[in-house]
Design goal:
The structure holds two protein chains of two kinds.
Chain A lengths: L6 H11 L4 H13 L5 E7 L6 H16 L3 E5 L7 H5 L6 H5 L5 H4 L1 E2 L6 E4 L15 H12 L3 E5 L8 H4 L6 E7 L5 H14 L3 E7 L12 H12 L15 E4 L7 E2 L18 H8 L7 H36 L9 E2 L11 H25 L1
Parallel strand pairs in A: 1-5, 1-6, 2-4, 2-5, 6-7, 7-8
Antiparallel strand pairs in A: 3-4, 8-9
Chain B lengths: L3 H4 L17 E9 L3 E6 L4 E5 L2 E4 L2 H7 L4 E2 H6 L4 E4 L2 E2 L2 E2 L4 H22 L7 E8 L5 H11 L5 E6 H8 L4 E8 L4 E7 L8 E4 L3 H15 L7 H11 L10 E6 L2 E6 L1 H9 L2 H13 L6 H5 L2 E4 L8 H13 L4 E3 L6 H12 L2 H6 L2
Parallel strand pairs in B: 1-9, 9-10, 11-16, 16-17
Antiparallel strand pairs in B: 1-2, 2-3, 4-5, 4-6, 7-8, 11-12, 12-13, 14-15
Helix pairs in contact in B: 4-5, 6-13, 7-8, 7-9, 10-12
The chains are: A alpha/beta, B alpha/beta.
Chain lengths: ~375, ~375
């Protein structure tokens, strides 16, 4: 495999690696999980799109690879809206092509040059998942092969409420992190996503409260914390979970200004101060990553709209230039050559055919006057 | 060569008639708006002629390369591969066929062409510009309106007049004369008899410069086997070698054959193509003569003026005389000194002689 190289890759990796809150809380939680099980697969999901799942999954994978110096595999399963290839400057071919049989796994696995130890399987070409393909043998085989070569397998999945197929992947995860976003994720959606996780029996490591401003309260009130904690406490932690980690993962804030509410002691919710890094946190990172592509139809619409504007402006410009040229041709530049005549002339008085010529002029004028009147009537 | 300035009267104080107090400089301009060439004569001594071609850069790259938004005449022809090239006048009038887009494009090109020819007349900014434009004798009302419409954007006042009449007026041949004005698209035949020519005094035929080009193209295609040439190449050859004389030096030209320059003798083809316009012209003259007062027909036959760009075909005046001898029992043809400027000079003279009040009323 050869690593993709694009100018933005290094900066993107650096951006993701430095994402505030990730290093302190998320990696720590996952590393503790890995102390009992290798390889460890961690699944990132969200209630709805736009929560920042891909960014956080990528940041986590990069951080684990950089700081643990172990093989990490990041796999993007959101086939509808691929993002990782764009973020990391990788070729688009990936899971989508492997699942439909048009590509093999190895050529699609891509290393990130700036992050040794990390290999990425992007989602590939955008398409809707085929029903059942995430539970098919081929998918299980892919995950198994990736687990063989990795210490950590980080799964970036589509939002739970929008895409049913993501729920099928919960069984493959040793730990699940639910990404919520301040001022974006609705409380009801967060609760429903949490219910789905609980019902599936997925080992929830916790939720990541993304883009937290610190002072703002989630969803306009704090109920979500309560709901999580209450519901999760009622569940029994699976035997496979390491001591000290409950299913109730608490809430991990990814903004430097927020409180790092990490659950790490197994005795309830240990509230510790989050690391107060400066900067704009997730907002800053997301803003500096490549933008999400618009759909083909929307793109074509934008192009058509811009072309119409350009045509209109070009027409106006041409007209203005033409008018300007005509006026400037007479007003500026060449001063011109003076006419022999300073004043109107007419048939010379001494001309022998003066009367005859004046009659001819009258005829010509009359014909032109009729033309002018005809034009005036028409307009 | 005739100098038009010598034919214009000396300046005098402005005319008092019509209570028009004009002491402002006035540039009179005569324009021969031709299918093939457009010529201008102005009262400041400027005379210019250029091929009636207008070219616009095909794209932004061409525009950047050419550093111009519009090119005219020879320059447009030379750079035609980078241009959308227009010859906006067909049969002496603004082309109006081929759909609205093409019609609009021709109008725009005609407007720019007239604007350019006026600019080349070098008017001063403090002068009024009064123009007379020669139009084909039988141009339709719609065509005349189109020409006036685009011309008004470039001058202060404008009039149209019949092209052959303007030629005759410029030479003071206003009575008992026949004018042959051979252009690219049409040949105008006009009978002058002391008054403004009426419709019955004028005949327009399409046996003109373009017809000769087409004939020559066909003949060369038959005789120069394997040679490749374009209509523009044929036109250039005609302008250089056109001849209808019986005694003529061989016309040897080179055409590429499979990429290799090959010499051809096109003398016979050239003579045949150029002579093709003579019978219809003489036939038209015969019509105008035969419908004239029998008492004065012989005077008409002996005062035939040959004008227009097409009149430059060597030996054409004598060939027409020979054909007139056969068909009409004789005749005398005079070629004007400056066929390219004949129409423009006449139009300038009309502009000069037009009373001030008429210009004012047509503004």
């Amino acid at each position: 495999m050869s690593a993709s190289t694009y100018t933005g890759q290094a900066s993107a990796v650096a951006l993701l690696e430095s994402l505030p809150g990730i290093g302190d809380v998320v990696w720590g939680t996952i590393m503790r999980l890995a102390s009992t099980r290798v390889p460890t697969s961690v699944l990132f999901t969200a209630a709805e799109r736009g929560a920042g799942t891909s960014v956080l999954a990528a940041a986590t994978a990069i951080g684990l690879a950089q700081h643990q110096r172990v093989p990490v595999c990041l796999i993007e399963t959101n086939l509808r809206r691929p993002a990782l290839a764009r973020y990391l400057g990788l070729k688009q071919q990936g899971l989508s092509e492997i699942l439909d049989g048009s590509a093999e796994l190895e050529p699609c696995l891509q290393e990130v040059e700036q992050c040794p130890g990390l290999c990425v399987l992007p989602a590939g070409s955008a398409r809707a998942p085929v029903s059942g393909e995430f539970t098919a043998e081929r998918m299980s085989s892919i995950l198994a092969r990736l687990e063989q070569r990795s210490h950590y397998l980080v799964l970036d999945t589509a939002p739970l409420l929008d895409h049913v197929e993501s729920r099928l992947l919960l069984n493959h995860a040793d730990g699940v992190l639910l990404v919520l976003r301040e001022r974006a994720t609705r409380l009801a959606d967060a609760e429903r996503a949490h219910e789905i996780l609980v019902e599936s029996g997925a080992p929830v490591l916790g939720s990541i409260f993304n883009a937290c401003s610190g002072s703002a309260r989630f969803g306009g009130n704090g109920r979500v914390h309560h709901a999580f904690e209450k519901d999760l406490r009622e569940r029994r932690a699976p035997a496979s979970l390491p001591a000290g980690i409950e299913r109730n993962g608490g809430t991990l804030h990814t903004n430097g200004n927020g409180n790092g509410n990490g659950n790490g002691n197994g005795n309830g919710n240990g509230h510790g101060k989050g690391k107060g890094t400066n900067g704009n946190g997730i907002h800053d990172v997301e803003a500096r990553l490549p933008e999400e592509p618009v759909s083909e139809a929307a793109h074509q619409h934008q192009i058509a709209q811009l072309e119409r504007r350009i045509a209109k402006l070009t027409l106006l410009l041409e007209q203005s230039e033409s008018d300007l040229q005509q006026s400037s041709a007479r007003a500026d530049g060449d001063p011109g050559i003076a006419s022999l005549y300073h004043g109107a002339q007419g048939v010379a008085p001494g001309d022998q055919a003066q009367a005859y010529k004046r009659a001819l002029m009258q005829d010509i004028f009359q014909a032109n006057l009729e033309l002018k009147n005809a034009m005036a009537r028409r307009t | 060569m005739q100098n038009i300035q010598a034919t214009l009267p000396k300046p005098r104080p402005s005319e008092p008639e019509g209570n028009v107090a004009l002491e402002q400089g006035i540039l009179y301009v005569g324009i021969d708006l031709g299918t093939s060439r457009t010529s201008v004569s102005a009262s400041n001594g400027v005379r210019e002629s250029m091929p009636s071609f207008v070219g616009y850069p095909k794209d932004a790259v061409s525009r950047k390369l050419l550093k111009k938004d519009v090119l005219f005449g020879d320059e447009a022809l030379e750079k035609r591969l980078s241009l959308d090239l227009y010859r906006p006048l067909g049969d002496g009038v603004i082309k109006d066929g081929g759909g609205k887009a093409e019609s609009d494009a021709n109008l725009r090109a005609a407007r720019d062409l007239i604007g350019e020819i006026i600019r080349r007349a070098k008017p001063r900014k403090d002068e009024l510009v009064y123009a007379v434009i020669g139009a084909p004798a039988q141009a339709s009302l719609h065509n005349k309106e189109a020409i006036l419409d685009v011309a008004r954007q470039s001058v202060d006042s404008v009039m149209l007049c019949s092209e052959p009449f303007s030629v005759a007026y410029g030479l003071d041949w206003l009575d008992e004369a026949l004018v042959i004005d051979i252009g690219a698209g049409t040949t105008d035949l006009c009978r002058m008899h002391g008054t403004m020519p009426e419709e019955s005094d004028q005949i327009t035929i399409t046996y003109a410069g373009d017809y000769v080009d087409g004939q020559l193209m066909q003949l060369l295609a038959q005789s120069c086997k394997g040679a490749s040439f374009s209509i523009q190449m044929v036109k250039t050859l005609k302008e250089k070698h056109s001849n209808v004389s019986n005694i003529v030096a061989p016309i040897l030209v080179e055409f590429p054959v499979a990429g290799k320059p090959t010499q051809f003798d096109i003398t016979a083809d050239m003579l045949r193509a150029c002579r093709a316009i003579i019978p219809p012209i003489v036939e038209g003259l015969g019509t105008l003569i035969s419908t004239f007062d029998p008492e004065f027909q012989h005077r008409l036959k002996n005062r035939v003026l040959l004008a227009g760009g097409g009149s430059q075909i060597a030996g054409l005046d004598q060939a027409i005389e020979a054909e007139m001898l056969v068909r009409l029992g004789g005749g005398r043809v005079l070629r004007i000194d400056e066929p390219v400027y004949g129409g423009a000079n006449g139009a300038l003279k009309i502009a000069h002689d037009m009373p001030a009040e008429f210009w004012q009323q047509l503004k």
